[in-house]
Amino acid sequence: MIKKLLAWAIIYLFNCFPIKKNKIFFFSYYGSQYGDSPKYITEYILKNYPEDRFDVVWAFNNIEEKAHLTDFRKVKIMTLRYFYELCTSKVIITNFRTTDLFVKRKGQYYIQTWHSSLRLKQIEKDSEKSLSPQYIQMAKKDSLKCDLLLSGCEYSTKIFKRSFWYDGEILECGTPANDILFKDELNIKDNIFKRLSIPKDYKIVLYAPTFRKSSDISVYNLEFQELLTSLSTRFGGKWMLLLRLHPHLTNLSNEFKNTKNFLNVTLYDDVQELMYISDVLITDYSSVMFSFLLTKKPCFLYMPDLPDYLKNDRKLYFDIEELPYSYARTNQELLENINGFNDKKYERDILNMLTKINSYDDGNASARLLNKIENELKI
Questions:
Q1: CA–centroid distance for 35 within its chain
Q2: 289, burial (CB in 10 Å: exposed 0-12, middle 13-18, buried 19+)
């Protein structure tokens, strides 16, 4: 409590300093990564605006790990410099709830990108019974601070209006994090392969399950080698499996050791880049399925704990049967779904789903948001 009181005193002091009109303050997943929509908004700024047009500041928990990021200023979370930059920024952009140590001041503009374009598992007010009272209180306070909420599709807009404790403006611009999925640039894939030390002639299957409230990792029991064999048989080529646990489980990532055809990429900041290089996605209840939907590449659901998840974790926005993906409760069912994959039916189902949700994503979400920022704030 003493630390929080001290932080509030510092915030009160720095909130007396002038706001810098062109300063934009970013953080993603509470400072743990350089990724998601805040990253792609930043990348758009760096590519499309003069160097002095915006003063871009990012906050990280570990500055040393981000030493390679040299195109903008960085601050360490909970330092004096962090509070100064946060309190004097005109625009604040994040993908998660802010705590009460963001005391928004008059003249600041807070943009909430959220961390998915659409989701399977219910969120916020729709899932209130599964959330802690502390989180609910934080979420309600955060929504009162918010000036703009981004939506990736019409279906998401309806969810936000009902569940987000928010009555403000929703910008139906698409999801900036998904902009990369519309690019067709060989050098992007080559650079990611190089960073991960993956041979260029390999095909990639990304396994990206979500977390459970219990943090149980026994449900991630894919039989990797049998899976890779089935993928090679059905789709051809040599395959490597990338495992990307949810950010809530990064402390457990060392439970999975790399082997010849298996790479644990949980600590890789940007799941969008992982989806970009992947030929197949396997997930369970994670929202990555709706981003991957835009690529129209094969996705399979592996849900060994479906009844238990529905009972003890979250309810879902869609019946599993409504989704364009086949789902499996066992490894054997998953292999059968891969072997029997029907390209033409899958393509029809994907298009039907995109029509149903009325996706706004087309690769230009960041551009629309920056246009909004410039016109709304006269920066």
A1: 7
A2: buried
Percent of the chain with pLDDT over 70: 100
**153: CB partners within 8 A, 6+ apart:** 117, 118, 357, 358, 359, 360, 361
Beta bridge partners of 134: none
The 3-class secondary structure across the chain, one letter per residue, is CHHHHHHHHHHHHHCCCCCEEEEEEEEEHHHCECCHHHHHHHHHHHHHCCCCCCEEEEEECCCHHHCCCCCCEEEECCCHHHHHHHHCEEEEEECCCCCCCCCCCCCCEEEECCCCCCCCECCHHHHHHHCCHHHHHHHHHHHHHCCEEECCEHHHHHHHHHHCCCCCEEECCCCHHHHHHHCCCHHHHHHHHHHHCCCCCEEEEEECCCCCCCCCCCCCCCCHHHHHHHHHHHHCCEEEEEECCCHHHHHHHHHCCCECCEEECCCCCCHHHHHHHCCEEEECCCCHHHHHHHHCCCEEEECCCHHHHHHHCCCECCCHHHCCCEEECCHHHHHHHHHCCCHHHHHHHHHHHHHHHCECCCCCHHHHHHHHHHHHHCC
The first and second tokens of residue 135, run together, are 């989180």
Q: What is the mean pLDDT of residues 227-233?
A: 97
- Report all structural domains of the chain as residue ranges with CATH numbers, in order of start: 10-178+363-377 (3.40.50.11820), 184-357 (3.40.50.12580)
Residue 62: other Cβ atoms inside 10 A = 11
Q: Tell me the per-residue pLDDT of 114-160, one tens digit each, with 9 for 90 and over.
A: 998 999 999 999 999 889 999 999 999 999 999 999 999 999 999 99
